[in-house]
Specification:
Keywords (chains A, B): ATP-binding, Nucleotide-binding
Radius of gyration of chain A: 31 Å
CATH architecture of one domain in chain A: 3-Layer(aba) Sandwich
CATH superfamily of one domain in chain A: NAD(P)-binding Rossmann-like Domain
Largest sheet of chain A: 7 strands, mixed
Strand content of chain A: 15-25%
Oligomer: homodimer
GO molecular function (chains A, B): acetate-CoA ligase (ADP-forming) activity; ATP binding; metal ion binding
InterPro entries (chains A, B): ATP-grasp (IPR011761), ATP_grasp_subdomain_1 (IPR013815), CoA-bd (IPR003781), Ligase_CoA_dom (IPR043938), NAD(P)-bd_dom_sf (IPR036291), Succ_CoA_lig_flav_dom (IPR032875), Succinyl-CoA_synth-like (IPR016102)
Helix content of chain A: 25-40%
Largest interface: A-B, 85 and 85 residues
Protein name (chains A, B): Acyl-CoA synthetase (NDP forming)
Strand order of the largest sheet of chain A: 9-8-11-10-12-13-14
Shape of chain A: flat
Distance between the termini of chain A: 53 Å
Chain lengths: ~675, ~675
């Protein structure tokens, strides 16, 4: 009998009990109850403790049964060994949801995981938060089932929901949000996250009228994948800011390869999240900064054509430096704008963007206003960034910015590199809805994070796909791999698998120069001397063949095709499913770690966007030093992805390098891994 | 009759006059005087204003002459047109130094520059700050010749001197320093910096007993060069933190080259500063963070073996992520340490570094203390980073950290990702000398900035060297350039300058494969089709020669030498003098912008260090995929530098690429620019 969204009953109960309620604020259970008792919550609160009559002004009950009224949610603040009995009581009494504070479960390893599994069984159809949860707060209804200190300082509901696996990160984030003047609608700490699904939480906040931005602080790749799945299904209903901690969380069992060494990396979660339009940030300061922009409707596009102004030339230059580095851009000013600025600015102030008002801005405080008004009339200016520093009293300046905000059709973002000793200025700005940044570097990092989220197209739904087949998979030899790719329309260099005798003849037919390799299924054979590159004639070929044959392997001969080198792979990630990886290849793959992952299936446009973000892709796209073949490389990626989707017995394909030369992209080295027993299937 | 250091008379005068003193705090001159009057300064203050008897409780004088007592420093708070007359009066009366507030000089262009030159003449032997200066504060003596609002909130002298060209950046920096609990010894705003030299300022602070760290906020490359020169002469007496704003300040007129396009970049100032051991930062937050560490004697070495602990697992993981990305390192724990930790920690807490105390740290508040004490006894742990989050009251925790500080032989650096509502905690930490960071990202960025400063050897003094010879320089053809380098012992690929007829013969003598180029003095001929690579035989050679000859140029033939590609250049920077540049070469030079500059002369160790910081250098050094030749590349750089120093008519040499293959490094493309008329000298 679940609600349409079970989160409703979890976070918005009409009544709540707290079992194990304590009178001591030195205990978690006491702190939670005392905080809850002081809140605005209008539902009934039932403390349960057989040794107390009253706690924090609330009548206390000896047991859940003794309450005698419907209880919708139960906060269980008892040690782990007593939790199953309370859950059984809850189910018997029709309690629909619970928060489990006790630790001692999956975070402690195998025995704890077993206990946690029992807990999930004991909860049955109930929805719950935890175990090892620090609770939650519903600030819309004033319900505090937690003791996070910042929340009590917030008088009303805000518009930002935070969901955190970690209690500590939630404490940190809520503090920094409060410092930035951002009020919360909900704060949910899931702890071990064994109960309520993050997909349900995200959908709840997508549908919640108060919430404008959802902030997710996540440790698990699997939860990131859940969030991506919701966005694929429902679209990006609201901005989502994601901080994923733990940069190599999922070990990826995979045939030895460069793909394998990179696929266990944080980049996979980052790229999958960004592909779905989530704003992926690196630290709490970026999470708060992006939230402060997004809740005011300021998005990546606002960073493209900004205008800035300041009385401090030094701060203008510092900000310009950061803008130049980040890919943000100062808007070119229209002629009308320039003419109007020329009319209001003294002659010695240059009409340009950013505008350095010089100390004249102190002499004539109306200059800032006039300048902002004129800049905001320019059709190409999307956002205006006034920069102020430190003063004893900034109220007049802040009031003037606040008064401008409704009058101009552009958002203001204040870069306040300093502060003031009056107590009111931050409140004036918050009231006016003006986001404030204290660091130029942070401001541009936030715009960069927002820009990296690709919201230009709806992500495609992904097919169910088996994960890595593990020990059941075999890696084809180089020759078989190349043949497989060729049959599937993926461009490869011309090649021939050869026996001891036919080498010279095959080379003559391919045309020199050629490459001779041992035809094995290892990716690092260049390290072990199993490859001879750039063989120019029959004599060199004979030498090379002699040497490689001595090692006992059969051989493969291919065109020598120097060029710019890419890596291109497809594989099934255990959490994120089918992915394509591409980036700088050959010796640069590991040195730069410069790869992008794209969830499959994806459009050619998505491959092009990913490739452009890598160094080698940017070189090809910009055609540096006559480089060409960007489109050919994208077409190759598209063919590779199709080949993978069409052959569901294929576990992994790595091509490294693909060389791009004279407008053509072809794999010169490839390794295909398939489920054992199917490898020869289509050859029959 | 200058003092040993003229800054003494500027910043520490025994008496001070302020000409143009106003009664209105709405005017800069009034704000300065009112601030000065409230300060602790024990010298005489003489306001000068013919229309006032008394200002802010001080007797006011109608003119400098009317004072009738010795005046050591004069703050000139009058418009630009009256400044020369006041300076003349000052000199007549023996005033030794001045601060010039008026703007309207070199910042406005040519006419202003002329006025500024006149000002310098008018000042004669006097030392002065400005023009366009916001003044200075000497907090050791309590003298405020400025109205920066934060300074009055500082009760006593601090230990950090800030020198800023920009007034606005000084306002910002002093605010953020105050927020971080860092008190200043001096704050100097030089404005247009036409008077006192920054070399003198740096030496003054090197010798000042109160100052522990010097922070320089600089816009001009020339001033960075002055600071570097002082360190070369005197050594790095104290830590210097440098924020250089304006990332492309010096245009570098240079023969068209990759070197030229990169040498106008901020990287030159960065690398020269770091080579001298200055800590080069990117924003004010890093400047404040590095200062907070360095003033406590915490340096780059402290980042190598840190230990961390927290009750918040999420924050531990977040910090670990940042540490992994930055090249900082968690110390491996000694066996004794592990055994002792096992004794105090509950069984379910893993003994590892960083230590996640879990919520057990709340249950038993002594755990943090015990853990820190044990970690601090570990010989390999250099620094301990406790991580705390948000609480209503953190006094007990902060007091406990403060009490530990004198007891343990290791610095604590607190990562406080949050805050508290008690007012005392920050003060307790500041009193105990514990630096506090609110962001893991900022903490690791600060250690990275400190590590990039190379203090492992005294920089070499640099020879005087003429700057670029500009129009008087000629660029040699490829063949002449290669011949010049070869004569000077710089390894180059085998080559031959050829006439129309001798091509085939020369190729046979060099051995195929070969490269044929037009023998011209352009660096981008590969863009224009003037190069044919990888010619395999006489037929291909004939085709190539036919094609290139049609273009009308003479030809140069060389070995085709594929390999890993470096760029290596030497040139005279107009500000920083002789420099060597190296980094990733060929197509990667512009795509990665991955170059390092080394001031010449320098040791081979300095070249090795610079090369290792580039991607290609790291590949060579780590021997990825069998790459070798790092030592050969360093030897080539050393030969190139010697060649440049030995030939003082050489203006620039660029070799791009140098290829490294089979342990050998050789230039395959080179361009030498020399002063006209000397090019053929040694050939004679």
């Amino acid at each position: 009998m679940k609600n349409p969204n079970p989160v409703q009953t979890l976070l918005c109960p009409r009544s709540i009990a707290i079992v194990g309620a304590s009178s001591s604020v030195k205990k978690v259970s006491g702190r939670i109850l005392s905080t809850m008792a002081r809140g605005r919550y209008s539902g009934r609160i039932f403390p349960v403790n057989p040794r107390a009559e009253e706690l924090f002004g609330l009548r206390c009950y000896p047991s859940l049964d003794a309450i005698g009224e419907p209880v919708e949610h139960c906060v269980i603040a008892l040690p782990a060994d007593q939790v199953p009995q309370v859950l059984a009581d809850c189910r018997r009494l029709g309690v629909r949801s619970a928060t489990i504070i006790a630790a001692g479960y999956a975070e402690l390893g195998e025995e704890g995981s077993r206990l946690q599994a029992e807990l999930v069984d004991a909860a049955g159809e109930m929805t719950f938060l935890g175990p090892n949860s620090m609770g939650f707060a519903n600030l819309v209804d004033g319900l505090f089932a937690t003791s996070v200190p910042t929340l009590e300082h917030q008088s009303d509901s805000g518009d930002v929901a935070i969901v955190s696996q970690s209690g500590g990160l939630a404490y940190s984030a809520s503090w920094f949000m409060a410092q930035a003047g951002i009020d919360l609608s909900y704060l949910v700490m899931s702890g071990n996250a064994a109960g309520v699904s993050f997909a349900d939480l995200l959908e709840f906040f997508f549908d919640d009228a108060k919430t404008r931005v959802v902030v997710m602080l996540i440790e698990s790749d699997a939860i990131v994948a859940q969030l991506v799945e919701v966005v694929e299904r429902r679209g990006l209903v609201k901005p989502v800011v994601l901080l994923k901690v733990g940069r190599g969380e999922t070990g990826v069992a995979m045939a030895k390869s460069h793909t394998g060494s990179l696929a266990g990396d944080y980049r996979v979660a980052r790229d999958c999240a960004q592909h779905a339009g989530l704003v992926f940030v690196d630290d709490l300061d970026e999470a708060v900064g992006c939230t402060s922009l997004l809740r005011r409707g300021i998005t990546a596009a606002n960073g493209d054509d900004i205008a800035a102004l300041s009385v401090s030339g030094g701060n203008v230059v510092l900000f310009s430096d950061q803008v130049d580095l980040s890919g943000m851009r100062f808007a070119p000013l229209a002629e009308t704008t320039q003419r109007r600025l020329r009319e209001v600015l003294p002659e010695f102030i240059a009409v340009q963007n950013p505008v350095d008002l010089t100390t004249q801005g102190y002499v004539d405080p109306t200059l800032q206003d006039h300048t902002i008004r004129i800049l905001s009339d320019d059709p190409s200016v999307t956002t205006i960034v006034p920069i102020i520093t430190a003063a004893a009293d900034y109220r007049a300046t802040c009031q003037s910015l606040a008064a401008l905000t409704p009058a101009i059709g552009r958002p203001l973002v204040l870069l306040w590199t300093g502060g003031s000793y009056d107590a009111e200025s931050p409140g004036i700005l918050a009231q006016a809805g003006i986001p404030v940044f204290r660091s130029a570097n942070l401001l541009v990092r936030c715009f960069r994070a927002m820009r990296a989220a690709s919201v230009d197209e709806a992500p495609l739904r992904r097919p169910a796909r088996t994960a890595n087949a593990g020990s059941n998979a075999v890696t084809l030899s180089e020759g078989d791999s190349m043949a497989f790719l060729q049959r599937n329309g993926v461009p490869v260099a011309r090649f021939a698998a050869v026996q001891s005798d036919g080498v010279a003849q095959a080379a003559a037919s391919l045309g020199y120069p050629v490459v001779l390799k041992q035809d094995v299924s290892e990716t690092h054979i260049s390290d072990s001397g199993g490859v001879v590159l750039d063989i120019r004639n029959a004599d060199e070929l004979a030498d090379a063949a002699e040497r490689l044959r001595r090692e006992g392997a059969s051989l493969i001969l291919s065109q020598f095709r120097p060029g710019l080198e890419l890596i291109a792979s497809v594989f099934v990630h255990p959490v994120f499913g089918p992915l394509l990886m591409t980036g700088s290849g050959g010796i640069w793959t590991e040195a730069l770690g410069d790869v992008q992952f794209v969830p499959l299936p994806a459009s050619a446009a998505a491959f092009a966007r990913a490739l452009k973000r890598t160094t080698i892709g940017a070189i090809l796209h910009e055609g540096r030093r006559g480089a060409s073949g960007f489109d050919a490389a994208v077409a190759l990626l598209d063919r590779l992805a199709r080949c993978f989707i069409d052959n569901d017995d294929v576990v992994q394909i790595e091509m490294n390098p693909v060389t791009v030369s004279r407008g053509e992209a072809r794999a010169v080295d490839a390794s295909v891994t398939r489920v054992a027993g199917t490898a020869g299937r289509e050859e029959r």
